[in-house]
């Protein structure tokens, strides 16, 4: 079974042991692409010890300074969170999410993002996610160890990849999901246009408004072509606002 | 959700960190009965550190000198193994096994047994098991960390317990599975009878023969009444062999 372009991203892991444990969990479940965003301590002997047998995954891990770089070129992005988030996120059970991630990895690179041990992912870090992953757990003590969470997700990914393929693929393979950096350009463009047209929402401040818009556009899971369409519309809106040669406003 | 009489048994764990990790995994998945057979090092600060938040499960852990004591009073016993075992075991995928263990825990205490980190369970330790649990994993590197294996099994147990109950229970609740110590008495009785009757298998030595018999009787998953029946038959065989008052042999 090929590892099929699924990226495991750990954001700001503070315990090197968890990085090693994640690497081993990945290798056990036939995944090999580990990206570390700003790890507190890496490389580290504790990481190496816990990776036991998965040294290759660990030493091939990419270290990057921010989440955006970790997600460059990705299509579908799923993020794990143990906290309750507002309802505008698409929230998927880890089992369903795994099936989805595997499907999406056939369109292009997909990623699962894990937050730091104590703090999880910030709202800002969640903004590139198309869906949040929920791991069922005790309500008394739902907070899983980071390495354990990676193990459960990669296990479900392994099962999903081993499952028989559906005969019909609903998603056309020639329409890759828009990459995070493309979505960022869309949001920047949109924010500019909202400013250009002096749009104000009566109920929300400007920051909240963009957050809400981002949220539902992330849920829409736009592909490259759809982003192009939106960008085209935004550009069209802007050209209307800047009449050439002193025409009427 | 109550923890419903499911026992997690670690046989001779060598790394105290794994004991702590197992305790946390259990608490995350709403289980609380941990039994340690002859742990190399326990209690230990590393176990406490890794248990983080599950100190109650850890401090309530029972330490016993052998597997038989860990399984006293148990009905269904499932054992994890990463090695290929001979074909006479019943082997269940961890997902199906979890459903089964949860079902059985409604009849009486059930147990899942995990072997030592490097060596796993010995053939002797597997003898009390009704079934072996297989965790799907990469063929390149299938050997999971002990704590991770506990996490995956308890996760599937949690899901199985959360699943809607079947409307009909196939197994009558008034027929608890025979406890391991009861099975041991049965096997000892049987071995005695085989000796009494001077039974020799032409193809196998005495030890192998008993191992094979144990294997298929474990697969039969006898309940208390069925063991009583067998014991009655064995006793009957023996009384026939010891004629009272010098009667004809």
Task: Give a brief rundown of this model.
With 249 residues, the first copy, chain A, is an alpha/beta fold. Chain A has 9 helices and 7 strands, in the order E-H-E-H-H-E-H-E-E-H-E-E-H-H-H-H.
Q: Describe the sheet with the most strands of chain A.
A: 7 strands, parallel
Number of distinct beta strands of chain A: 7
Nearest-integer average pLDDT of chain A: 86
How many separate helices of chain A? Answer: 9
Relative helix content of chain A = 40-55%
CATH superfamily of the largest domain in chain A: SPOUT methyltransferase, trefoil knot domain
Low-confidence stretches of chain A: 244-249
**Biggest interchain interface, per-side counts:** A-B, 30 and 30 residues
State the end-to-end CA separation of chain A: 61 Å
Strand order of the largest sheet of chain A: 3-2-1-6-4-7-5
Write the layout of secondary structure elements.
The structure is a homodimer of 249-residue chains.
Chain A: E1 6-11, H1 16-28, E2 33-37, H2 45-51, H3 55-59, E3 62-64, H4 67-71, E4 77-80, E5 91-93, H5 94-105, E6 110-114, E7 131-134, H6 146-162, H7 180-196, H8 206-220, H9 224-241
Parallel strand pairs in A: 1-2, 1-6, 2-3, 4-6, 4-7, 5-7
């Amino acid at each position: 079974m090929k590892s099929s372009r699924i990226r495991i991203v750990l954001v700001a892991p503070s315990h090197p042991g968890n990085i090693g444990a994640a690497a081993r969990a990945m290798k056990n479940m036939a995944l090999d692409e580990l990206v570390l965003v700003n790890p507190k301590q890496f490389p580290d002997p504790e990481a190496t010890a816990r990776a036991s047998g998965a040294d290759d995954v660990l030493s091939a891990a990419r270290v990057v300074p921010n989440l955006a770089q970790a997600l460059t070129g990705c299509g579908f992005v799923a993020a794990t969170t143990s906290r309750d988030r507002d309802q505008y996120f698409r929230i998927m059970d880890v089992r369903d999410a795994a099936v989805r991630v595997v499907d999406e990895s056939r369109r292009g690179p997909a990623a699962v993002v894990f937050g730091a041990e104590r703090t999880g992912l910030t709202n800002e870090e969640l903004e590139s996610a198309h869906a949040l992953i929920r791991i069922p757990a005790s309500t008394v003590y739902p907070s899983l160890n980071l390495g354990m969470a990676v193990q459960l997700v990669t296990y479900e990914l392994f099962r999903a990849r081993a499952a028989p393929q559906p005969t019909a693929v609903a998603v056309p393979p020639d329409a890759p999901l828009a990459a995070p950096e493309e979505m960022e350009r869309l949001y920047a463009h949109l924010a500019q246009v909202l400013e250009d047209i002096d749009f104000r929402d009566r109920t929300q401040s400007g920051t909240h408004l963009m957050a809400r818009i981002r949220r539902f556009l992330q849920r829409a899971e736009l592909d490259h072509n759809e982003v192009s369409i939106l960008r085209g519309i935004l550009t069209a809106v802007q050209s209307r606002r800047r009449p050439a040669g002193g025409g009427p406003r």
